[in-house]
Structures are given as structure tokens and as C-alpha cells.
């Protein structure tokens, strides 16, 4: 008895449980339908006119989202607009630009001022090319059985000739020795430079010259087949040495 009764009790509740959910499901469906109808009525004539159950609901949601977004943006705008006159956040922004604009002219003014003294204060090198840009037509060495004791530098006649280094003019003129109009400069360190075949001499004996100073003009006086500067370096008077390595050691490349 006791064993059967639970079985019967189990059967009866099974049927009741199966029937009760169905009833409750029907009731729920009715409730859902009623709620949907209420929602449809609540949405108004638009939902009814469209007669779409799914379309108006998301449309309404999207409209709500848009309206909320617009409201939020309006709120942001209102906050921004309201903040603009009250907070001085915009007033400092022009002030830093004015501050930044003021240092820029000072920087340019400083940059303009600095290079000028640098250019003017550049010291001339101790040794310079006596005739820059000239073509080397003959180097120091044996030539035609005799020693060519200098370097021949060619440019059009009348090209300025410059002192290779600072010194004192010891000879200036035509000694009728084949060099034509020539100039000797004693550099005070045991070396002299000699500039021959000049068309015109621009210095006098005893004159002190600076490196790069014009001492005369190229020509073809003396034993010269054409206008050129015959440039010599003397280690002691009339002891000619090869000018090329000497000048190269002083930072001037004559090309030989
Ligand atoms: Zn020569």
C-alpha cells in the first residue's frame, strides 16, 4: 500500500504537471498577446497603420536612441557653450599663441645676429693659393735638361696674384734674369716665395703683406712663352724646393 501510493501519487502529479504547464503556457501566451496588443496600442496609430509587429518596435527604439544621442549632444553643446563664457579656458589659448609668437622673432633675430660676426671673424689661413683656379701647366722638376724650379700656374693675363703667406717684400722688379717682373716675399721662417713673369707689380720692396693680399698681376714678362705665374718656394734665398709638397703641408693643394 505504501509502495503503491507513491507510484499513484507520482503518476497523478505527472499528469497534473504535464497539463498544468500547458495551461500556464496558454495563459502566458494570452498574457504576451495582450501585452503586445497593449504595446501596439501604446505605440499609437503608427504601429497599427504599419501593421508590422517587429518593424515599429526597433524603429521606436532607434528613434529613442537617436533622440537620446541628440539630447546628449545637445547637453554636451550646452555645457560647452555655457562653459565658454564662464571658464577662461579659451582666453589662455590665445595668450600662449601670443607668447609663442613673441619668442619666434627673438629666435630669428638671434639667428640673424650670430652668423654675421662668425663670417667677419673668420681668420684667413696662414697659407693660401697664390692664384686660385689656375691650371697647372708645369710642375717642379727636370725639364729639357734643366731643373724647372717652380710650378707654372696658368690663367688669363692680368689675373691677380696673391701672397701665399704673410711676409715682407724683399725684391720687386725686373732683374733681367729671365723671370721678368718678379716679387720675393720673405715669410720670416726661413722660407721665401717667388712670383715671376708678372705683367704688373703691385707692391714695393720693404712692404709688409698679408696672406692673400694682391701683390701683382699675371703676365708673360721675361722668358715666358705665354701668360702664367711661375711660383717658387725658396728654403733660404735661391735654394728652390718643390712647392707642391711644401704648400700641401700648409693646407694648399697646387695639383702637382
Ligand atoms: Zn715656370
Taking all residues together, what is the mean pLDDT? 70
What Rg is obtained from the alpha carbons, in whole angstroms?
A: 54 Å
The named CATH superfamily of the largest domain: Glucose Permease (Domain IIA)
Quick one: overall form? globular
| SS-derived structural category | alpha+beta
Total helical segments: 7
Could you tell me the strand content as a percent range?
15-25%
**Terminal CA distance:** 136 Å
Order of helices and strands: HHHHHHEEEEEEEEEEEEH
Helix content, binned percent: 40-55%
Return the domain count.
3
The residue ranges in which pLDDT falls below 50 over 5 or more consecutive positions are: 1-114
Any ligands, ions or cofactors bound here, and which? Answer: zinc ion
Second rung of CATH, namely the architecture of the largest domain: Distorted Sandwich
Q: CATH topology of the largest domain, what is it called? A: Glucose Permease (Domain IIA)
| Number of strand segments | 12
Amino acid at each position: 500500500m505504501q509502495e503503491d501510493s507513491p507510484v499513484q501519487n507520482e503518476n497523478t502529479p505527472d499528469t497534473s504537471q504535464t497539463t498544468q504547464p500547458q495551461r500556464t503556457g496558454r495563459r502566458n501566451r494570452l498574457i504576451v498577446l495582450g501585452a503586445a496588443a497593449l504595446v501596439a496600442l501604446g505605440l499609437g496609430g503608427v504601429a497599427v497603420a504599419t501593421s508590422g509587429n517587429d518593424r515599429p518596435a526597433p524603429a521606436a527604439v532607434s528613434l529613442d536612441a537617436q533622440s537620446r544621442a541628440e539630447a546628449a549632444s545637445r547637453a554636451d553643446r550646452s555645457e560647452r557653450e555655457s562653459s565658454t563664457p564662464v571658464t577662461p579656458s579659451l582666453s589662455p589659448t590665445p595668450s600662449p599663441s601670443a607668447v609663442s609668437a613673441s619668442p619666434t622673432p627673438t629666435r630669428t633675430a638671434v639667428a640673424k645676429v650670430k652668423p654675421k660676426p662668425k663670417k667677419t671673424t673668420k681668420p684667413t689661413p696662414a697659407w693660401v693659393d697664390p692664384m686660385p683656379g689656375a691650371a697647372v701647366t708645369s710642375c717642379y722638376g727636370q725639364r729639357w735638361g734643366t731643373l724647372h724650379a717652380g710650378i707654372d700656374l696658368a690663367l688669363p693675363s692680368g689675373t691677380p696674384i696673391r701672397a701665399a703667406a704673410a711676409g715682407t717684400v724683399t725684391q720687386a722688379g725686373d732683374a733681367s734674369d729671365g723671370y721678368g717682373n718678379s716679387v720675393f716675399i720673405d715669410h720670416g721662417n726661413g722660407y721665401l716665395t717667388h712670383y715671376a713673369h708678372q705683367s704688373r707689380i703691385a707692391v714695393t720692396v720693404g712692404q709688409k703683406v698679408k696672406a692673400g693680399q694682391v701683390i701683382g698681376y699675371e703676365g708673360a714678362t721675361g722668358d715666358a712663352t705665354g701668360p702664367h705665374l711661375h711660383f717658387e718656394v725658396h728654403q733660404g734665398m735661391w735654394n728652390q724646393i718643390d712647392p707642391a709638397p711644401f704648400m700641401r703641408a700648409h693646407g694648399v693643394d697646387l695639383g702637382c
